[in-house]
Specification:
The complex is a heterodimer of chains A (327) and B (339). Chain A is α/β, with parallel strands linked by helices and 327 residues long. Chain A has a single domain (10-320), classed as Rossmann fold. Chain A is built from twelve helices and seven strands. Chain B has a seven-stranded mixed beta sheet, with helices on both faces. Chain B has a five-stranded mixed beta sheet with strand order 9-11-10-13-14, with helices on both faces. A two-stranded antiparallel ribbon of chain B has the order 1-8. In chain B, helix 7 (161-173) links the parallel strand 6 and strand 7. Chain B starts with a strand and ends with a helix. The relative contact order of chain B is 0.12. Classes of the chains: A alpha/beta (327), B alpha/beta (339). Chain B: GO terms for molecular function: oxidoreductase activity. Chain B: This is Alpha-ketoacid dehydrogenase subunit beta. Chain B: It holds the Pfam family Transketolase_C. Chain B: It comes from Ancylobacter oerskovii.
């Protein structure tokens, strides 16, 4: 390990890369498949933001809970939700993570601590306070992470929850994935403060802003706030300045973005490229090892799409089941 | 052993018993302890009307005062329920659902279905409902139909102390989200209530008075108005059967239908506004499923399609009265009497 200057072992570096590559390929593939018209409803892709999910989730285990967003595929993958089940869910199949009853915006796996993607912006913040409260009562050292974008950062639920988490000293982290756009509206227009650290301070929370395209920056900052919360130090806010490679939803023409913005970002601010360049040029991981992960992930995504397409649809009786535990 | 206690005491007792039985039961809400962080007494209020008074001394930090942030703490209760706790959150007045409805409508009610059956959300949201307190338009509504409309929620509204205790215990043990509606005008009403723990199953209506001529269906405070009306009607020779639904979701259709098949007449009394109400729901269900048994058109006695007024003279007109219920019964029997 003499040529590994990173705070992670080679296996951990490769695991982080695999997570990010899986998210990227999953999303790039959905972009293609959605355009073919095979996927019902709408999807919101996480491509470009992979370092946030991967850098944060590496600090978590299944006892830790996350509350995700409408752009939740990356959070699911990084939290360990099965990729085949996710893909089948997005295709509306009975083998899906939610048996085809939730879809892209509602993928959940409570056994993995994944409390659901969420179609309501900012709704995860109160829920994660509940997860933090439960962890505190149980004394199991679990933490809760709620993700929201710069858009949902202006929801009252988020602001109320920061105050609640602060007064109850909950083991909860508020993660702003600031990709600069609330749907089509810029963060400069819609958010009154220049820094989310200032907003956190308004609720008595420590806050930190990191470059969300830098896995190592996210990983280090997340590690500190998560450790602090786990040890009873209370909630914090983590702002990841990140990039959304695609539109708000698939089919979004993105005319609100600057000309060439997506191309520039893909060329210069791609968190996967940045990561791969750093670890290979430092000699911590070889290019061959990176390529091997790429090939394995490509095969996984191919297999997931194939099995999702071939999977059975929900039976008509499924319409009426699972409304209540007992009624 | 049974003794007379109030509806309010019955609720307190149900919470106490369930907190003793199950360590995952926690209780949170605005001022439910009262005085948190203040220089005076803790448990100063025990809830705005004293329903939770004394529980803090018994259960300590399992009762938590919350900031005035209904979305955050109702959502936290729901999140904690999804993570293995059995929280009982007090919303104070059900009217305040307006500030936290997303957490109830789109989160708690949806988890089980949306996540393919893999989640359960055993949360109870207690709140005061109903008029008669001179509390005006934002603290007096009977909003039960808004919740019964939503699949995934259960809705309970006890009319007396005995039911309040047994239904709240059932609500806490239930694995689905429950909206537990406490009629504020009933808090002082007393009934024989056993000291021990008991649960009343959901979806079992209570026939509180038997009769052969007309079925009056109601819930909450207006059950008592219906009983008053039945008493008056008895003097005119009309024997009214009065059914207390107790739970609105699930609802005991069988008892209602069976009664209407015996009496041939239906009057539904609902303190909610009339459009898309419990009254409309029951009348429609009976018309669809027991049309052949009906000797007259079903009648609905509800609040008018207005907000709850403040001035006592107006508010008294707003709540369905025993006279209005008796008049509705007379409408259903008029044709038979004329024939």
């Amino acid at each position: 390990m003499t040529n590994n200057p990173f705070p992670l072992s080679k296996d951990e570096l490769l695991a982080a890369y695999r997570t990010m590559r899986t998210i990227r390929d999953f999303e790039e593939r959905l972009h293609v498949e959605f355009a073919k018209g095979d996927i019902p409803g709408f999807v919101h892709l996480y491509a470009g933001e992979e370092a946030c999910a991967a850098g944060i989730m590496m600090h978590l285990t299944d006892i830790d809970r996350i509350a995700s967003t409408h752009r939740g595929h990356g959070h699911c993958i990084a939290k360990g939700v099965d990729v085949h089940e996710m893909m089948a869910e997005i295709y509306g199949k009975s083998t899906g993570a939610c048996r085809g009853k939730g879809g892209s915006m509602h993928i959940a796996d409570l056994s993995k601590g994944m409390m659901g993607a969420n179609g309501i912006l900012g709704a995860g913040a109160p829920l994660i306070c509940g997860a933090g409260l439960a962890a505190k009562f149980r004394g199991d050292g679990g933490v809760g992470i709620t993700f929201f974008g710069d858009g949902a950062s202006n929801q009252g639920t988020v602001l109320e929850s920061m105050n609640l988490a602060a007064i109850w000293n909950l083991p909860v982290i508020f993660v702003v994935e600031n990709n600069g756009y609330a749907e089509s509206t810029s963060v400069e227009y819609a958010t009154a403060v220049d820094s989310y650290v200032d907003r956190a301070a308004g609720f008595g929370l420590p806050g930190v802003t990191v470059d969300g395209t830098d896995f190592f920056a996210v990983h280090e900052a997340a590690g500190e706030v998560i450790r602090r919360a786990r040890e009873g130090g209370g909630p914090a806010l983590l702002e990841c300045k990140t990039i959304r490679f695609f539109g708000h939803f698939e089919g979004d023409a993105q005319t609100y973005k600057a000309k060439g913005e997506n191309d520039y970002n893909r060329e210069n601010r791609d968190c996967l490229r940045i990561f791969a360049n750093r670890v290979t040029s430092a000699g911590a991981v070889s290019e061959a090892e990176i390529s091997l992960v790429d090939r394995e992930v490509a095969a996984l995504i191919d297999a997931a799409v194939e099995s999702a397409k071939g999977a059975p649809l929900p039976s008509p009786r499924e319409l009426l089941t699972d409304v209540y535990v007992a009624y | 052993m049974a003794r007379k206690i109030s509806y309010k005491q019955a609720i307190n007792e149900a919470l106490d018993l369930e907190m003793r039985r199950d360590p995952t039961v926690i209780v949170l809400g605005e001022d439910i302890v009262g005085g948190a962080g203040a220089p005076g007494e803790l448990d100063a209020w025990g809830g705005v009307l004293g329903v939770t008074k004394g529980l803090h001394a018994k259960h300590g930090n399992r009762l938590m005062d919350t900031p005035l942030s209904e979305s955050a703490y109702i959502g936290a209760a729901i999140g904690a329920a999804a993570c293995g706790m059995r929280p009982v959150a007090e919303l104070m007045f059900l009217d305040f659902m307006g500030v936290c409805f997303d957490q109830i409508l789109n989160q708690a009610a949806k988890f089980k279905y949306m996540f393919g059956g893999k989640a359960k959300t055993p949360v109870v949201i207690r709140a005061m409902v109903g008029a008669g307190f001179r509390a005006a338009a934002q603290h007096s509504q009977m909003l039960t139909p808004l919740f019964t409309h939503v699949p995934g929620l259960k809705v309970v509204c006890p009319s007396n102390a005995y039911d309040a205790k047994g239904l709240l215990i059932q609500s806490i043990r239930d694995d689905d989200p429950v909206i537990f509606c406490e009629h504020k005008a009933l808090y002082g009403s007393e009934a024989d209530v056993p000291e021990e723990s008991y649960a009343i199953p959901f979806g079992e209506a209570n026939i509180v008075r038997e009769g052969k001529d007309v079925t009056i269906v109601s819930y909450g405070l207006t059950v008592h108005r219906a009983l008053d009306a039945a008493e008056k009607l008895a003097k005119t020779g009309v024997q009214a059967e009065v059914i207390d639904l107790r739970t609105l979701s699930p609802i005991d259709w069988d008892t209602v239908i069976e009664s209407v098949e015996n009496t041939g007449r239906l009057v539904v009394v609902d303190e909610a506004n009339p459009r898309c109400s419990i009254a409309g729901d029951v009348a429609a269900h009976v018309a669809q499923n027991a049309f052949g048994a009906l000797k007259a058109a079903p009648q609905m006695v509800t609040a008018p399609h207005t907000p709850v007024p403040f001035s006592p003279v107006l508010e008294d007109l707003y709540i369905p009265s025993a006279d209005a219920i008796a008049a509705a019964v007379t409408k259903t029997t008029a044709r038979a009497l004329a024939a």
